[in-house]
Amino acid sequence: MFIAIYIVIVIPETFVRADGAFIPFDECFDMSRVTTTVNGLGDMGEVMAIDLEAPVGSIVGRQVVKVGRSSGITKGRIMAYALEYEDEKGLCLFTDFVIVGKNKRAFDLEGDSGSLILLMEGTGQRPRPVGMIWGGTLANRGRLKLCIGHGPESWTSGVDLARLLDLLQLSLITSNA
Length: 177
What we know:
Layout: E1 3-11, E2 14-22, E3 37-38, E4 42-43, E5 63-68, E6 72-87, E7 90-101, E8 116-119, E9 128-133, E10 156-160, H1 161-168
Antiparallel strand pairs: 1-2, 3-4, 5-6, 5-8, 6-7, 7-10, 8-9, 9-10
């Protein structure tokens, strides 16, 4: 049985948007058949929680990668976290990641929603899940100027995975142990 749902969790002054697919497992499900390998990237590390009191540079500017259904493996950079901006419709607040693809390539394509966003650590380190693509709206793609002196860039939104898992009281299987 496969169940797809859209989740909106309301918290005072903020909220979490996420695409989700939940697959209920029978009690006799054989966990030994579960793999934690990300296709094309290898084994993943533990989920990284974002410390909201840490300096902005601890997450903004970091390199990420994802494997999407439509776009395959793409690399990018976290440009913002908890972004607030104003456009012709008024004040907009994203309590999520804003990611720009590497070399002006889009970080995601339609159909990639729900893909894990993995933080790239040093050489030899496993990529750590840090977010999940929820896609955003096509109306905003390519309209947000993220850097002064640059034109609008194509960007992708992703929800903070550790926060989402905590709110839903779920865990991500990151090892075969």
